[in-house]
Fold these 2 entries.
Entry 1:
Amino acid sequence: MADLTHTPGSIDLHTHSTASDGRLSPTALVDRAADGGVRLLALTDHDTLAGLDEASHQARIRGIELIKGVEISVTWEKRTLHIVGLGVATSERTLASGLAGLQALRDQRARAMGKQLEAEGLAGASERARELAGGGQITRAHYARLLVDDGLCDKPQQAFKRYLKPGRPGYVNVTWAGLEEAIGWIHAAGGQAVLAHPMAYGMTGAWRRRMLTAFCDAGGDAMEVCCGNHNPSDNHVCARDARHYGLKGSVGSDYHGPHQRWLALGRPLPLPADIEPVWVHLSF
Ligand code: AMP
Ligand code: MN
Ligand code: MN
Ligand code: MN
């Protein structure tokens, strides 16, 4: 296990590539991270391990540590949660077959969304989303991009609000993995299960505490404390939660590409010193 002290900017354990809704290839993502001073990087694409071999290869070339990760879509209490698995073995069957099921669901959902959005005036939606994803997982972010490209919305944010959120005309409801199920897959693959961006679910404090209790009961290991989509007071709330629930801490930008001009790889703040870092438990 390498000794990696978390100096600001050196660790980022939540990122995306073209294997899902990121804009950079795994190689380009690793290059950008290395150029920016990141020493320990996890690639965590939505419901797929497809980018990991390429990323590992490039990380070896660049002399940085790559943690093999995944961000699993979970349905809990009719809500979607994201559980990041860190340090997963890509050859392990339980995780691979669980993800294959989610990929089939994504594919069906993408088709259904495409049809609904075509009816809303987004010409050739299904086919174009598939092309945009280039063989990677098709996500709502791909449809958001098309809605912006065609001038139906100004910004992706608006595309989600008008078309892609529950209750909107492009939304298709699916039941993803169960919470215990996803954590079980991650553990079967030797990984650590991390609750992603706890403040980004639009929950009240009471719901967040229910979620954290359920996550702990299901065997979860850690939570993201310092995230790209958190403000400093969110980080503070999460640090308190990590202490209260006895969870380890993780840090991740949730970087999707240079179009997110407000985000940078490795930018999340360091973990407070009294929270046990999840990466101490990963071998790389
Ligand atoms: P999916 O997993 O296919 O439902 O897509 C979810 C992805 O869409 C997330 O991982 C984000 O990258 C992106 N996303 C979700 N909500 C928003 C939003 N309000 N604005 C921009 N991107 C979003
Ligand atoms: Mn995403
Ligand atoms: Mn997420
Ligand atoms: Mn993410």
Entry 2:
Amino acid sequence: MSSPADDGAAEKSNNNNNDFTVTPWEVEGEVDYNRLIEKFGTQPITQELLQKIKSMTGEVHPMLKLGYFFSHRDFDWILDKKQKGENFYLYTGRGPSGMVHMGHLMPWMFTKYLQDKFDSKLLFQLTDDEKFLYGQDRTREETKRYTYENILDIIAIGFDPKKTKIIVDTKHIEHLYPIATEVAKRITFSTAKAVFGFTNSTNIGMIGFPPIQAAPCFLPSIIEGKNTPVLIPAAIDQDPYWRMTRDVADRMGYYKPAQVHSKFLPGLGMMGKMSSSKPETAIFTTDEPEVVEKKVSSAFTGGQPTIALQRQLGANALGCPVFWYLRYFFDTEKQSDERMLKCKSGNLLCGECKADLAKGAKPFVVEFKKRREKAKDVVAKFMYDEKPIEP
Ligand code: TYM
């Protein structure tokens, strides 16, 4: 995979004081999410909003309760619309640059929960064009292969086939392009540079791409023949696209798309988000259980250099990827809170947490792989044009 510097796009465009970077193409350093809320101008998820969700769905999803989804724009407005009888679409996506890892699954699992609770239709975009353009050494064949493989993961999440349509940019472009040109016409190069950090060395495909990711925000209004609210669940790295899109929505006569933003699932290495470009620190849905075991056993933790020191000083759960994996995927809230206390007080050793993680993650990938296999039979049902797509 080429480095961001090779691609010349958005280098550190949203860098905050140089200690972390969050762009759609690069997440580096220890992200300060509160600062991102300020910098990106989003809203924190408040207790009031959680109460509203609870009153409508009967529960608060653990990813909301635990603050994994931590920020939003107009989520409250979308819920008001729903209460008044106006249905909203969900829209999320994937850039097929590699196999899917557990980090990607988080927003998709949350999207499924929203689909189930609010009975929403979902558009799922695969930006094979973006990933081909971005990766200097990446071939069309590669993005095509990953597109198919990633679609199996998306279907394996369990979305409702009657309410879910997958859009592959290079296949279904005729549905996006008319909207994308409307968006593109309203955005100057100077705005695109400011939002995405494009430079003179960015290839012009990348510069022209953002309106294609904006297009599904407005496609529901065209499908439904009336202005239709859209909610986008995704990690916060995608936010530049939505800032740009919200800016033109009014002028195009559409509602601004709403967002709910998640944090990043960390990689099993020392810092940064889980990323396909660091495969040894990511658990892929296609990993064999032995590989999962190996990755978990070599994971970085918040532990002390020796057992004696750990017993004496305790460890740093909050800076430990193993802790976060367990918290988001496999522990109940109660178990996780207890784990944190025991870890901090030196009553829990890293080996024990790693063993718990391996115990959860191994059957998880085995089960997920079975669902991916079954997905092969129903791909066409999910595609926007209901036509099969070749592996
Ligand atoms: P991509 O393929 O980089 O990421 C897919 C989704 O996964 C989120 N994500 C993560 N979430 C938690 N932890 C991580 N370590 C992690 N890494 C990635 C991303 O925020 C995203 O939600 N351009 C997009 C594709 C796209 C899209 C969309 C995404 C097109 N339309 C609408 C979200 C919503 C991309 O390359 O995503």
